[in-house]
Amino acid sequence: MPNIIRISRGIEINVNEAGDTICIPVDDMNFIDNYNNVLDTFDRIDKEIKEKEGTLAPKEELRFIIEKTREVMDGINNLFMDEQCCKKVFGNIVPSPYLLADFFEQLCPYIEKYADERQKKIMDKYRKPVRRK
Predict the structure, then answer these.
(1) pLDDT tens track, the chain, 133 positions
(2) I need a surface site. Which of 48, 61, 83, 128 has the fewest CB within 10 A?
């Protein structure tokens, strides 16, 4: 028997026509917390952008939006522990807030499905059998 141990890293998801994948590290205890933090950051930045709307010169406003979008992109890359995650998903662009929202909408079902399955497995594993008299 070879001296090899393989541990699943998570759920691999194909994200583009080139066949690149990202891994959802579903067994990382911090993942859901980090995921929620990224969503909170996205919401916070969306509000900041709306507050600045019309108060800056057009070029300044665009630079502000790009800067804030890059913050979200950094959060996504960190979430998936992959510095190339956004490049794989969006290509070599700074995505619009609409593309970012679309990404999260497409990602949610994978996370929810896993969370539901994981919860069921935990409940099944630790459910005590009922003793009959």
Answers:
(1) 678 887 777 889 999 999 999 998 877 878 888 989 999 998 999 899 999 989 999 999 999 999 999 999 999 999 999 999 999 999 999 999 889 999 999 998 888 887 777 777 777 777 766 566 6
(2) 128
CA 86 to chain centre: 10
Cβ-Cβ contacts under 8 Å for 88 (sequence gap 6 or more): 15, 16, 20, 21, 22, 82
Burial class (CB in 10 A: 0-12, 13-18, 19+), 23: middle
Which tokens belong to 83?
Answer: 């510095």
CA dihedral 5, 9, 11, 12 (to 10 degrees): -90
Cα separation, 48 vs 44, whole angstroms:
6
